[in-house]
Amino acid sequence: MIDWTNATSSQEQPAGLQRSKCVLGFIPVIYYSVLLCVGLPVNILTAVALCRLASRTKKPLYYYLLAVTGSDILSQLFIIFVGFLLETAVFHRDVPKVLLQAVSAAEFAANHASIWSTVPLTVDRYVALCHPLLHRQISYPARARRIIASVLALSLASGVPFFWWSDMWRNSHPPTALDSVLIWTHVTIIYFLPCSLFFVLNSLIILTLQVRKRRQPCQEEPRPVRRLGKTTAMLLAITSVFSVLWAPRTAVVIYHLYVSSVHRDWRVHLAYDLSNMLAMLNTAVNFFLYCFVSKPFRNVVRDVVLLRSWPSYSGHTAPQNQTPNNNSISSLYSGNNKRSQRDSTPLSPHRARKPS
């Protein structure tokens, strides 16, 4: 899907056309090698820690975060390792066109899965904060697993049309009508549509919390109002980082389509190299966000690194006999937010019934 060098092609160029050269030289090879050597172990460590938390707490949040981490691992394997390093840096030779197209489809599928696995997490947080009673009814691990499976299946299917993706580096002809359709489909799936959903849902979350905060002084008997907790802040950080890191690449792809070709203009070539490097950084930053936000996550990571068994952090994530109807608030919330939830939760029918 993303090729940062054109050294693997030996196709003859038409007269009068000269290929753009990679200005960065071996810098992308070093960058992607370091990113893979650091990002892949970090994501594997994140997956192990989230598996422990998910099995211990049965919180849907951890299943969604685990799906994001697994998709990032697939992106690092298919896009960085296979697409960037093996195809262009290690092989450094012509490869069969069918193999390139098959790898391209796999890269697109992994990329779509990495991005769209964040969408169910955003929807889950929106429902939990804006419609907590509904969230208690519809959010539970089995449903979360079904949603994740559906997203991954759709992401895999969405990569199939990009088997016919035109290689920007190796094709000297101007973009065709098929190229235009695939490029606009690509930027819509990986950027415009998810970013629109993130913007709308995050805006509703912030607006709802602000309205509740303004209404609080007007109440005769004040109740604790749910604040912008660390989980919501982490969600905003994840979606904001994605929007910033992927914006340059989206702009360069559209520029390639309508203004100047990556194949012919070294400046577009350079911009495409840098934007790809920036976009792939998104697959390795979530671990640090989780560590910054969640003390239970840091404790589990410490236990995994020190090869401790999972009961050693049971004090931070104590088991609760929970049903699917009481999983609305993340275990990453602070104690104040948990008390806020208990104060604002109505009594169940069994507790409200008076003895006859």
Automatic annotation (TrEMBL):
Keyword entries, A-Z: Cell membrane, G-protein coupled receptor, Membrane, Receptor, Transducer, Transmembrane, Transmembrane helix
Signal peptide feature range: none
Polar residues bias: start-end ranges: 316-347
Region Disordered: start-end pairs: 316-356
G-protein coupled receptors family 1 profile domain boundaries: 42-290
Ranges that cross the membrane: 29-50, 62-86, 144-164, 184-211, 232-258, 270-293
Keyword Transmembrane annotated: yes
SUPFAM superfamilies according to UniProt: Family A G protein-coupled receptor-like
Gene Ontology cellular-component terms listed: plasma membrane
Subcellular location, record wording: Cell membrane
Protein name: G-protein coupled receptors family 1 profile domain-containing protein
Organism annotation: Oryzias javanicus (Javanese ricefish)
